[in-house]
Specification:
CATH topology of the largest domain: TIM Barrel
Order of helices and strands: HEHEHEHEHEHEEHEHEHHEEHEEEH
Helix content: 25-40%
Distance between the termini: 25 Å
Strand order of the largest sheet: 1-2-3-4-5-6-8-9
Number of strands: 14
CATH superfamily of the largest domain: Aldolase class I
Structural class: alpha/beta
Number of helices: 12
Largest sheet: 8 strands, parallel, barrel
Number of domains: 2
Radius of gyration: 19 Å
Shape: globular
Length: 340
């Protein structure tokens, strides 16, 4: 199917072929995944949340060594100490990354600084007010997150409720995020007014993801009913920041009390290690290839789009099937309208 059939304002803005952004998942979204997605025509985001500048520089350089297609770096200022954030931004700006993506609270000054450094700005939001603020501050793309999303969830409404309102309210490209893992989801998002999609779970179990094999296996065996939204995994993040994860022994142990936890009040029980750094129970770390420990007790991030991918496959195949499936669905819908 000719890729230009799904050309949108998002592909025009980002300079990619397909209107699909792979989420900058902190940990799993390293250079291998980002380069694979961008080289295949999507737009990859490096997940460099609270990472040292040296790692950010290496990951950016590695993406560039593998593809000449555009990509971006995702940071979360709200959850990053100020000096660390400054060091991360300096690494990105000095490397002249094509795009920056931010999440959680909207900081207009960061948008202005990123634009001044020559980068496009994508901003992931969970409300209409935040989308309007980001657009007014100069963001190039707004990513609308629905409550179906995996990982940290800012949204409190379903994507189908929030997306059309935001698409009608702002004049810049909009990407839909939350529960989208296949062509049907992409087609539905486009029909609701989005210019493309932003997917995490769809790529989390891919061959190139830096997620640990245990996490990938749990993802391909799970379904939407196996996820839960909770603030139980809160250590290392500011309070009141819920996450969507796969159910495990930790969520089961909480019983009906899945809410009301505070990072400062949680016990620090070491359950793993990453290159000398302790990984604690109730922490926000998800299992990575660089970790050892009790992965079952860690935060196994997954959105409600889980269950579509039932095997570990290359990211390029996941992307190509998503785009082809969406194009086929849109063609059928167009034909039905013409025949009516």
């Amino acid at each position: 199917m000719p890729s230009q059939m799904l050309a949108t304002r998002l592909t025009d803005c980002l300079g990619c072929t397909h209107p699909v952004i792979s989420a900058g998942m902190g940990g799993p979204a390293r250079s291998s995944l980002v380069a694979a997605v961008s080289a295949a025509g999507g737009f990859g985001l490096l997940g460099m949340v609270r990472e040292p500048p040296a790692l950010i520089e290496r990951e950016i350089a590695t993406v560039r060594a593998r593809t000449d297609r555009p990509f971006g770096v995702n940071l979360i200022p709200f959850a990053t100490p100020p000096q660390m954030l400054e060091d991360e931004l300096a690494a990105c700006f000095n490397a002249r990354v094509p795009a920056m993506c931010f999440f959680w609270e909207v900081y207009p000054d960061l948008i202005a600084r990123s634009k001044a450094a020559g980068a496009l700005v994508l901003y992931q939001v969970g409300s209409l007010d935040a989308a309007i603020l980001a657009a007014k501050a100069g963001a190039d793309v707004v990513i609308v997150q629905g409550i179906e999303a995996g990982g940290h969830v800012k949204a409190t409404q379903p994507l189908a409720t929030l997306l059309p309102r935001i698409a009608d309210a702002i004049d810049i490209p909009v990407a839909a995020s939350g529960g989208i893992s296949d062509g049907s989801g992409l087609a539905a998002a486009l029909a609701m007014g989005a210019d493309g999609v932003h997917c995490g779970t769809a790529f989390l179990a891919s061959s190139e993801s830096f997620a640990h094999a245990y996490h990938k296996q749990r993802l391909i065996e799970a379904g939407p009913q196996d996820t839960v939204l909770t603030d139980l995994f809160c250590i290392n993040w500011p309070p009141h920041a819920p996450v969507r994860v796969l159910k495990n022994s930790v969520t089961a142990g909480a019983g009906d009390k899945l809410w009301g936890y505070h990072p400062g009040q949680m016990p620090h029980v070491v359950i793993g290690e990453e290159e000398g750094r302790p990984i604690v129970k109730f922490g926000t770390d998800s299992p990575l290839q660089s970790m050892t420990g009790d992965f079952e007790q860690m935060a196994l991030y997954a959105g409600q789009g889980v269950g579509v991918e039932t095997s570990i496959r290359p990211a390029a195949i996941v992307l190509e099937e998503m785009v082809a499936g969406a194009a086929a669905k849109l063609r059928r819908t167009s034909q039905m309208v013409q025949d009516a």
